[in-house]
# Entry
Amino acid sequence: MRQVYLDYSATTPVKKEVLDEMLPYFSEHFGNPSSLYSIAQNSKQALDLARERVAKLINANPNEVFFTAGGSEADNWALEGILDAHKDKGNHMITTKIEHHAILHTGEFLSKRGCEVTYLDVDSEGFINLEELESAITDKTVLISIIFANNEVGTVQPIKAISEIAKKHGVFLHVDAVQALGNVPIDVKELGVDLMSMSGHKIYGPKGVGALYIRKGVKISNLIHGGAQEMKKRAGTENLTGIVGFGKAADMARENLDEHIKSISQLRDYFIKEVQEKIPHTIVNGSMKHRHPGNANISFEYIEGESILMLLDMNGICVSTGSACSSKSLTPSHVLSAMGIPVERIHGTIRFSIGEFTTKEDLDYVIEKLVEIVGTLRALSPISAEKGWN
Ligand SMILES: *Cc1c(COP(=O)(O)O)cnc(C)c1O
# Structure
């Protein structure tokens, strides 16, 4: 049976070139980068090179890139570290209702510790309102944290305009760029962000490694305490193999960025067009204009997303309903809810995410199976029957 992976927003496979670069650092060049003898110098150099490569992808200076154990740690660190370091100024933070759980749950944690968190609404395409953002700022506001490209619907926020508002009011801006990295051109200097979260496994690197960009001069408390690694800001012997892999993946993403965006978005547009032509009563969620190139979030009216997912899986096709994190529960996605999508429609929503190894033939196979599956499910659905759809 054909296997088609359309869940690149959940994770990506490690590219062969990335794995090849990682392998020697498991046993051949195993030295601790902090050791002073010469055999550890290979490790130190590899660490420096990875930092330069990640920095180059986002136009940062290498000393502004701090490796972490992934995107979630970077998100936790940005919020907790900034609120702690600037508590003399205030205890207020602004974020959105459509963040990844690594932000939302950190926000809840901070609230329990006496911080005040404002969650901005979004419109039907998933955009925040800039006037609402500006009027939410008070003299106690320390941080604004906004997701760059949304992981469920792919909506890309106007980060430059947001950073201008943050600057005008002297508030720090953190951006969760885990989905945007390698899929949207990012220049931290041009965008004017103060902190930015990244992750290796969403850009064809290994899992369990990521980074936080911290603009030079931004004061932040440490999250992990211990040794002097990561310029004394993030303790713990470095995940050298992971970091080397993340560095290589970042380098490949930078070299291939324009071509990647062009080819992936072409496939995505083809897929959306075919699905809408061949399957009636489907709705594409999110913005068509400012969208992650690989994201196709589609509602199939009056049938269950869980059923579609299971039948696709039986045909070797991997997708997710709303988001991977809520796939085990039937609570409707918080992102789609915030966009005002009715619960019944949310339950019939599938996220297809296209990536570098997706082919047009893969998509044709998925479309063929989707037509069958949606047809079968609608034939069984009393609501569809009532409406005369089958
Ligand atoms: C995947 C993801 C994260 C978490 O990154 P991990 O490296 O898996 O911890 C955070 N934010 C967004 C938007 C993501 O898609």
Q: What stands out?
A: Residues 16-255 form a domain with the Aspartate Aminotransferase; domain 2 fold (CATH 3.40.640.10). The chain has 15 helices and twelve strands. The chain has two domains: 4-12+257-381, 16-255. Residues 81 and 345 are 38 Å apart (CA to CA).
